[in-house]
Amino acid sequence: MDRTSRGIFVLRAVLGGGFLFAGLDKFLMWSSGTPFTSAGFLAHATGGAWLGSSATTIVNPTHPFWVSLAGNASLMTVIDTLVVFGECAIGAALILGLATRFAGACGLLLMALLYVANWSFATGPFNEQFMYGLIAGTIAYVGAGAYALDSVVEKLAITQRIPVVKYALG
Q1: pLDDT band at 123 (very low <50, low <70, confident <90, very high)
Q2: For residue 131, what are the domain limits?
Q3: How confident is the model at residue 2 (pLDDT cuts 50, 70, 90)?
Q4: Are 119 and 53 within 8 A, CB to CB?
Q5: Which end of the chain has fewer CB atoms < 10 Å from its terminal CB, N or C?
Q6: How far does Cα 45 stand from its chain's mean position?
Q7: What gap in Å lies between CA 108 and CA 10, rounded to an integer?
Q8: How far apart are CA 135 and CA 129, in angstroms?
Q9: How many H helices and E strands in the chain?
């Protein structure tokens, strides 16, 4: 196995571990002891920040959208479930190297949504969501690399008959 394959494996496993831990923390309530809800974040932490802006100034042009989501209790149940399930599923898929391109694309989408919702540019545009999204997008582009279940699934007869499924794999 070459250095590139090992590097992709390490990025995939570490990013997957980060997603899986975040999802399990919310599901099992390790850090908070209370059920997870993103309503507080959407209502109060989506004002954004800009270089030199006051902490009370709302600079995020999408802020009203996120606040409206937080005010809809039925929708928040769906959003909270999708966040927890998404983080766990993306994390497990990346660690296992299963449906790697799809998991990477989903990770990129989740991080892009959080990046826009957070809108925190007080220290520049390269925050945590940007970096996680960049790595997830790279994994979606390059595929699973070595040590992946995708290589086993690709050999199945059904996968050979459906090209789009084969591409979603690594």
Answers
A1: confident
A2: 3-168
A3: confident
A4: no
A5: N
A6: 18
A7: 18
A8: 10
A9: 9, 0
pLDDT tens digits, 145-156: 888 998 888 888
Distance CA(140)–CA(156), nearest Å, equals 21
Residue with tokens 């595929």: 143
- Tell whether pTM > 0.85: yes
Compute the average pLDDT of residues 68-93.
97
- The CA distance from 110 to 122, in Å, is 21
- Residue bearing tokens 């070595």: 146
> What is the identity of the amino acid at 35?
P
DSSP bridge partners of 49: 120
CA 97 to chain centre: 15
Q: Where are the beta strands (DSSP E) in 7-48?
A: none
The residue with tokens 């040590």 is: 147
5 vs 18 pLDDT, higher one: 18
CB of 21 closer than 8 Å to CB of 84: no
The structural domain count of the chain equals 1
Q: Which of 166, 165, 169, 109 is nearest to 143 (CA)?
A: 169
